[in-house]
Amino acid sequence: MLESIQKDFQSLAPKADFCSLRYVEETSEQLSVQQNVVLPPQTCIDRGVMVTVIKSGGLGYAGTSDLSHQGLKEALDRAERWAVLTGGRSVVDYSSLTMPRPQGSYRSPVADDAARLSKREKIEMLREESAHSKIDDRIVDWSASLWTTHTRQRYLTADGASVDQEFD
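^ that's the sequence the OP posted. Answer follows.
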């Protein structure tokens, strides 16, 4: 999917002083055991892009979760319209700025990767923690939870910059 977004961005980027796209995908899982009862697992995947255009001295941006060719086109068109509309009306003349064109990648170090455990192993670990949490009769509510999040980002510019980042 990310490769098709990059290809679409390169073909759709407007003629401008600067154009960028930032893709973000976040996957999260939350497992909980409350008072020794396993709660329904929660899984979420969130994806979208933010595009920025500098043109005619103005800056415009737009975001979308529609990652289709048409969705990217509409976001880029909207950002371009805002850039043209803000040209000459802003404190900053954005066309005079030199925008960076970085290259690189980064992956956060992970000492204890929860992804290596099966869902069953994680729930058993949480059951054990929950069972050991009620250490006194005065405790009336207790729980154990594990929430993991994986975030992947790619930053691109129309003139070739590319940066990948992953965080856990």
